[in-house]
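User: My collaborator and I are trying to settle a disagreement about how two of our proteins should look. Neither of us wants to argue from intuition anymore, so we agreed to look at predicted structures for both before our next call. Could you fold the first one, then the second, and keep them clearly separated?

Assistant: That sounds like a sensible way to settle it. I'll keep them separate. The first protein:
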Amino acid sequence: MKDDQPQRVVELLFRSAAEDGGRRISLHLADDEERNQVMVLALSHRQDMEPGDDDQVLRDTEHMRTVAALGARDVGVETTPDGRRWWAGLDLPRPQRARQVDERQLHALTRAPRKLERPPNPV
């Protein structure tokens, strides 16, 4: 997964919930630090949803295909009494390791600044 893909997935889920026309939108994140993964859930708080609206199902399917194409490992959408939920599970990019620092660089980085004998002269 490219570095910008998690952001693009979150934006698409958020946009999907916004286009649903609910009263508000909730965005929930749950992380699994050990596996370096996150679950993103966007909820539109629209309580008048009809579960089986074929046009909406087709739009939701297209959104989920787009999210899956961005590299999400799990995607889904469901209609509940609280509104419609879109979710995606993401493998996050691994943090880059720190560069190896040789002894001379380490000594130069840790050397204390010189002591001033007196304050600098005003200009």
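The second protein, kept apart from the first:
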Amino acid sequence: MNRTTLGRATTTTLTYTIRRDSEDGDGSARFGLIGEEASGTRISTTDPRCVNPLVGRHPQTTRLPHALDCALTTLQPGRPEKVTVQVSLGPECATVVSKLGYWMPEGQALYTGGMLPGPKLTCD
């Protein structure tokens, strides 16, 4: 990631670089960001691999503005993926955390995926 802090009442553009080091498993991964819900944090991107998650029962179309979920399907060793996002904070400080989930060998077994914590953004 290209930063570690966010500013109050600003929009910060962040670029996350996601690398796959092992040849085990496949090129699929899920990358997610989540901010503090009550803080007014908004996370967005124009990347078509990412969406703000839906909430509520069908036919609701409301999306969580403080969360982003990305489906990466072409991760290969030696070929990192970049995801660029915009994080907007209101007048209050807030944190944003990230996680990466991935597939491992024996993908049909129930507990083969893992979640790795990513960088945590704090407010300055």
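Some points you might bring to the call about the second protein. The CA atoms of residues 23 and 35 lie 32 Å apart. The two ends are 17 Å apart (CA to CA).
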